Amino acid sequence: MSITASRNQSVAQSVAQSLGTRPVWQVGALAVFAGAVVTEAFALVARGVGVPMEAAGPGATEAAEIPVGGFAGGVLFWSVVGVVLAMALARWAERPARTFVVITVALTVLSLVGPAVAPHTATSTQIVLAVSHVVAAAVVIPPLAGRLARGRG
After folding, report:
1. Which one of 33, 34, 72, 100 is separated from 41 by 20 to 30 angstroms, measured CA to CA?
2. pLDDT tens digits, 53-72
3. Half-sphere exposure of 77 (CA within 13 A, CB side)
4. CA neighbor of 24 nearest in space, from 134, 123, 145
5. What secondary structure does DSSP assign to 80-134, as a single string?
6. In whole angstroms, how far apart are CA 124 and each of 54, 88, 113, 120, 141?
């Protein structure tokens, strides 16, 4: 193992140990912030390569622009629900980490329906929207699940 790889592994272990001792809400806050930043960066890259950021909701007659910051705002809003769920599971569930992962992965899969059926929305935008849901989940779920696996709190 190289010195760099060893150092990176040591830093990762240190971060994991530190997060394991923090309250669930603090780990959640950090995960949500990271998820919002990463997802918004993904959306900005998509904008940069020309994906039209206009989408329509059910019943809309035309697509509306998704503003810069819209992806981060969505992650912040919906991830708070996930943090509250994690806190409740930490307190009352017999297997909080497993239950959290099952519920949040199922909700992530369910969230893909919205972009798939968005009317008046370019296919490229639908794909970016769906992938952004997966990106946010990939950043937010693991730290919370890891914290829940380390015990109550």
Report:
1. 100
2. 999 988 888 999 999 999 99
3. 7
4. 145
5. HHHHHHHHHHHHH-SSHHHHHHHHHHHHHHHHTHHHHH-TT--HHHHHHHHHHHH
6. 10, 37, 15, 12, 26
